Structure formats: C-alpha cells, structure tokens
C-alpha cells in the first residue's frame, strides 16, 4: 500500500527509529522469516500449507504491475463514457449547381466552361458578392491569415495546405476576397491540373480563384507545372490559390506552400452561431430585444454546456463545428431541449467518423506493402491500445489479421485456402504512421514530438476524442469482425507479456459486454482461471469495466457472488482483485460480503487483494460500515478471516488525518468524532497486536502513535484511553505492552513524557 499521509505526517512518524517495534530477543518476527514474502503494506507471510483448494496452486513467476484503482476507473471511463465528437460529410457538388466550404451552399453563381485540346474541362465559377460577404461575415480569423495575405501580395500562385474539414477552403475564399474584393472571387474545377494551361479562354482579370485539389492530384503536381501556372496567372492578372493537403510535399514545393492553422474551435463556434441564428430573440425579452439575449445564449447556455464544452475542448475541425452550429441554430433549443438535441446528434456523427476510419481507403497501405485488412487492423489496434507505442500496436494488428484469417478459414469450403499474409517487417516513422492512420484518425491522435527521436512514439487520443475509441470498437463489432474473432483477439492480448497491453485489452473486453454479456462473461471466466497473476489482474479490470455499465451490474454481481462462494481459488482471487481495482468503490456493500467469503481461502494468505479491497471500501467513505464488519471478522472461527481483519487494521492505522489535524491518527480521529466506536477500534488493535503474522509491525505502528502524541495532550488522552481498552482483561497483551515499554520504547524514545503515563496504565491494570 502506498503512504497516503501528508508530508508532515510522515516526517513526524519517522521520529520512531527503525527498530521501535522489534520483537523480544530470540523471537524472530513471523513476517521476516526467510523464504516468505515480506509484508509490504498488506502482505502476510505464513508458512506454506500443503492443503489446497481446487485451483489453489502456486502462481507462475511473473512481475505484477501495481495499479491504482482511481487510475483504472479513469481510464475505463474514457472508453465507456457516452460523450462524443462530431463530423459531417464533404458536401461539394462539382459544376454549376453548388459548391462550398463544409456544408455551405452557394446561391447565385456565374458559370463558364472551357474545353482544352486534350478533351479535359475547366469550370470557372464566379461567386456572387452577397454570398462571399456572408461567408466573410461568419468567418473566424485563422492564425495563418496574415502569412497567406503576404504571400498573395507577392505571388500569383500560392498553395494552402491543410487536412479536409479544417476550414482551408473558406480561408482561401476570404483571403481572395481581401485581396481582390467581394465581387471578384471565383472557384475553379478541373479534371487535370494541366488542363488550366491549355484553356482557350482566360479567367477574368483582377480576380482571385480558388481550386481544391484531390490527394491524388497533390501527389502528382510538380514544380514545373506550378511555375507554368504562376506565369499564366501573372499574365492574366489573377491570383490562384490551390487548396489541398500538401503536408508531404512541403519540402518539394518550398516557397509556394502556406500551412493553414485554423482558429480555436470555440472561436469558430461563437462566430458561426452568432451569424447562423435565424431568430431575432432567443430569450424572454418582455420590453423588446436589444440583442443581448443572443450573446448570453451563445456564451452561457451553449459554450458552457458540459457536452459542448467537452466537444469544443477536443479542438474539432471547423467543418465539424459548422455542422453543430447549423443543428443548434435552426431552433435555438435551451436547457433540456439543447441537451436532448446534442445527445441525439453526437453519437450518430461519432459513429460515422469511426466508420470512415475502419473503411480504409484504397491504397492506404500500398506505400509500405500492406493490404486494407492490415491497415484496418492497425487502426482498430490504435483504438484498443491507446497510449502504447506504434510497434506494440503493429504487433497487435498482426495478431488480429491472423485471428481474422483463421476465423474465416473455418467457413471456407477448402481447408487449403490461403491464409492472409503477415505484416512485412516495417520500421514505423512519422510519415509512415500518418499514411496508416489516415486523415480522420490522424486528426484525433496525438504523437509526442520527441517520440520518434527516441524510437518509441506513443499514440494518444487527443483530449475530447476519447469516445472515438468506443465508436471504432462498435463499428468493428457490427460491421467488420465476427464477435468470436474480436473477443478471441482481445483475450489473446490479455494473455500477452506486456502489462500495458493486457490492461488496455481488458478494458476493451469489458466494453464488449454491452453487446454480448454472456460471451464477455465466458471470456473473463477463462481469463480468471489463469495461473498467471498478471492475467487475473487484467480479468479483474474486465469485471470493473462491466460493472461500470449500469445495465450489466445485476448480471455481473450474480456472477461474482457465485465465484466468491465457490471452491475455485483463482476465481475467488479475481473477485478480490476486482474490488481492489475499484469495484469496492462501486459496490461497497457487496464488497464486504464477497471479500468475507474470499478471505477464508488459504490462497489469500500470499496475496494483498482482500486487504486492498477493504481499504477501498474505507477510502470511499464507508468506515462506519467497514469497522463493525472487521470486528465480526475477528470473532470468526476461521483464522484466515481473523488474519485479514488484523492486516486491514494495521494498514489503516498508518493513515493520518488531513490538515489541520495531521497530528491525529485517522482511525483515532474517527473514534473521537463518533464515526466508529472506541470498543470496536480496541478489538481490532488487540487482534492485530496478538496474531504473530501482524504483531511485529502493529507494535511498530503503535509506537509511532505514541511518538506523535507526545506534546499533543488531546491526542495523548485518546491514545491512553484506547490502550486501556486494548489491554483490559487481556493478560498476554498487558505483558507484551510492559515488554515493549521497558525494552523498546523507553530506550529509543527516552524523552517521551507519554511513556510514563503508559507505565501507570500498566500498573493500574496490575492492581
């Protein structure tokens, strides 16, 4: 157990030397005997027994990573939560009908079309002045606008680079309007970029034209074509803005490319919503509306709404924000209506984005020799193994490709059907990972800048994008992989050697329970029977993830009741581990019942999980229920149960109250305020001081209480009163207290005035 005391509390308790609680000479402490595990916070050390329950066998050697329950719950909440992000499709119609940025439809356009000698076509669409003004009026200034304006003044051709949906097209339109005027902005459309060089009729002089390029066109463009286009634009007195994703061509096209840096999502939302609201008044303005209600609605009701605040905090792309604005601006919903509208919109749009991620585009992995199935497996592995390195994600993807191939081979007529090839060895670099992730997933993933330098880049989902993980899993479950293949792959990852891989995969198995609870229970039962402690720890995480879903709690609790009452030692151990990792915080009442059953298993003598689960109950604010139950444990005829009660007391006795009462032991402070009774606390202390397995460190802890109480009259009075109850009627404990006082405490704490009162207490009892 970690030390949760304040720094001042720890320094004060260290006033007791290391040997302040040593056993009498010749009596070696039970906990320090050679060959036994040390009691580091909650571990008992009893001589091995030859009696075995079913499955009560020694664990295989494995380093088990200690986990914090709060951290486990926080990570699972990121996967199982219901907040979402938003996306929309690219609404562009080529030709004379409409064009636009995101979902913006253009009204009146003047269209001309010119044929080239090679048979290609060039569309020149001159936008109406009113349309461009509307776009500019609702435009949020981007960080790259000043640089773009400077380039347009110096050059006749500029490339504006940015991912799809980032607002790059709108920025290009507004920049052209700033350069030439609202009535002299046009949009070009071409089949091939070279078609512009062969156009017979030139563009209107003094206009600014915007041309959106596909990814294929961007990859094929060369410097000679750009130079020729720039010369032609200069000849006709126009500017040409090429819009596309030039991120991989910046070095090749140096000097021509401006990287688009979109404004903050919150600023885009505010600006667009103020413009898009179609109702003159969104409040209840009795004496006429002066427009102030619109500002309050945007700033207070919308931007501060928890769902929208989380969404905007994830920095979605401007095109996505436009879709949210349009959904809100139609009716300007408030309070519950706004929440309901968002709850309906966000999950649907989130799933559409996840579907685009897994439906890998043609040629996504062609540059590295990967098939679409391999790319899809890599992207799904990113969602499952969030926070891990790219190499670990790639290995997990290899397993999924193999598992998927085996699954489908079972349904093939021919048993000799070829299996899918394994992923070729590949050193993952920045540009390679970008290609494998694709634009949609890459926009949601953060790669630390220094990760590639040290060769261990870890892929993280950006803040606000966490729920995209569950959406990707949902699409994989329903659209791409048979459930048995997906569950088998995740179970295989849970059995992996790397603890981080096991834990991440365990959360995903818990997620699957909402789709097929029986299949998830069967999977976690198999994992809980494993001899490897690390695998059982991951199985416990699965149970916590399942219990965090309200509609599954009754089913999971019934299953754990059977495990806790059954004879299988490893299943019972997994129940204790689940409570240790956060389940006790969710079900404190069930934890006390199930941990009582698990504590009777001799297998728990070598594990800490029962005590840690009880400490979780205590930390969640249920000390008033825990302490009386532990007192009942001390009266159990089962010595194993008594031992766990004593262990728990010893761990809790090392906790100190929070400032400004940090000089109080936390348990003693609870007794002082009446949350627990002095008699119950004395009973637990008497048990911990009497059992050989816990006596050594319990006497040390009691010595630290006396050290801290010296010079604190109120604390000293309560400590003495507690000691009086502990030794009352217990002759062996009174003798041991006398021994501690004479041979241990007085030699190491000669200036502690409280020890004289302890001596008088012993004499009183002797009389």
From TrEMBL:
Annotated signal sequence range: none
Location of region: Disordered: 1-71
Acidic residues: compositionally biased ranges: 53-68
Protein name: HEAT repeat-containing protein
Native organism: Micromonospora sediminimaris
């Amino acid at each position: 157990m970690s030390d949760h005391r304040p720094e001042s509390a720890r320094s004060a308790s260290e006033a007791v030397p290391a040997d302040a609680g040593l056993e009498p000479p010749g009596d070696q402490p039970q906990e320090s005997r050679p060959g036994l595990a040390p009691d580091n916070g909650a571990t008992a050390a009893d001589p091995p027994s030859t009696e075995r329950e079913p499955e009560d066998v020694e664990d295989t050697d494995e380093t088990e990573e200690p986990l914090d329950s709060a951290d486990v719950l926080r990570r699972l909440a990121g996967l199982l939560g219901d907040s979402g992000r938003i996306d929309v499709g690219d609404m562009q119609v080529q030709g004379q009908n409409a064009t636009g940025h995101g979902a913006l439809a253009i009204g009146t356009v003047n269209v001309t079309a010119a044929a080239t000698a090679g048979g290609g076509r060039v569309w020149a669409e001159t936008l109406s002045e009113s349309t461009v003004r509307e776009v500019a009026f609702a435009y949020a200034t981007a960080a790259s606008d000043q640089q773009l304006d400077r380039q347009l003044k110096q050059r006749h051709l500029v490339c504006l680079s940015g991912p799809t949906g980032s607002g790059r097209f709108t920025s290009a339109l507004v920049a052209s309007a700033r350069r030439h005027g609202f009535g002299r902005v046009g949009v070009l459309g071409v089949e091939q970029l070279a078609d512009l060089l062969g156009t017979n009729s030139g563009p209107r002089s003094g206009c600014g034209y915007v041309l959106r390029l596909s990814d294929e066109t961007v990859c094929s463009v060369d410097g000679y074509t750009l130079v020729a286009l720039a010369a032609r634009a200069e000849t006709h007195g126009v500017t040409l803005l090429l819009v596309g994703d030039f991120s991989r061509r910046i070095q090749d096209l140096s000097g021509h490319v401006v990287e688009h840096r979109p404004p903050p999502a919150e600023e885009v939302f505010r600006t667009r919503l103020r413009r898009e609201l179609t109702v003159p008044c969104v409040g209840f303005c009795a004496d006429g509306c002066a427009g102030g209600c619109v500002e309050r609605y945007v700033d207070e009701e919308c931007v501060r709404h928890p769902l929208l605040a989380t969404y905007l905090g994830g920095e979605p792309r401007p095109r996505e924000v436009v879709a949210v604005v349009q959904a809100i601006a139609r009716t300007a919903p408030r309070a519950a209506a706004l929440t309901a509208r968002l709850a309906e919109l966000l999950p649907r749009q989130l799933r559409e984005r996840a579907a685009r991620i897994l439906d890998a585009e043609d040629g996504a992995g062609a540059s590295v020799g990967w098939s679409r199935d391999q790319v899809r497996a890599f992207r799904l592995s990113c969602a499952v193994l969030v926070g891990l390195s790219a190499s670990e994600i790639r290995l997990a993807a290899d397993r999924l490709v193999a598992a998927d191939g085996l699954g489908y081979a079972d349904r093939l007529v021919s048993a000799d059907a070829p299996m899918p090839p394994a992923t070729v060895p590949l050193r993952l670099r920045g540009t390679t990972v970008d290609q494998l992730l694709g634009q949609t997933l890459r926009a949601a993933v953060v790669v630390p800048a220094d990760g590639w330098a040290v060769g261990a880049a870890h892929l993280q989902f950006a803040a606000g994008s966490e729920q995209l993980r569950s959406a990707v899993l949902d699409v994989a479950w329903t659209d791409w992989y048979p459930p048995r293949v997906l569950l088998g792959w995740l179970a295989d990852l849970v059995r992996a050697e790397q603890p981080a891989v096991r834990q991440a995969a365990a959360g995903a198995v818990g997620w699957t329970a909402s789709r097929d609870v029986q299949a998830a229970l069967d999977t976690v039962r198999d994992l809980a029977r494993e001899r490897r402690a690390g695998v059982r720890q991951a199985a416990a995480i699965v149970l916590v993830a399942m219990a965090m879903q309200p509609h599954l709690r009754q089913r999971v609790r019934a299953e754990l009741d059977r495990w806790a009452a059954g004879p299988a030692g490893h299943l019972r151990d997994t129940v204790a581990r689940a409570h240790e990792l956060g389940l006790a915080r969710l079900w404190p009442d069930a934890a006390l019942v199930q941990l009582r059953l698990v504590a009777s298993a001799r297998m728990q003598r070598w594990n800490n999980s029962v005590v840690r689960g009880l400490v979780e109950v205590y930390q969640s604010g249920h000390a008033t229920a825990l302490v009386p139950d532990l007192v009942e444990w001390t009266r159990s005829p089962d010595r194993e149960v008594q031992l766990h009660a004593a262990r728990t007391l010893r761990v809790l006795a090392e906790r100190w109250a929070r400032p400004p009462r940090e000089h109080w032991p936390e348990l003693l402070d609870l007794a002082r305020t009446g949350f627990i009774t002095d008699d119950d606390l004395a009973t637990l202390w008497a048990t911990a001081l009497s059992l050989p397995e816990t006596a050594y460190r319990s006497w040390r802890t009691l010595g630290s209480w006396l050290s801290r109480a010296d010079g604190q009259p109120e604390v000293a009075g309560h400590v003495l009163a507690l000691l009086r109850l502990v030794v009352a009627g217990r002759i062996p404990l009174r003798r041991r207290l006398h021994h501690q006082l004479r041979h241990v405490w007085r030699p190491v704490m000669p200036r502690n005035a409280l020890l004289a009162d302890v001596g008088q207490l012993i004499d009183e009892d002797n009389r």
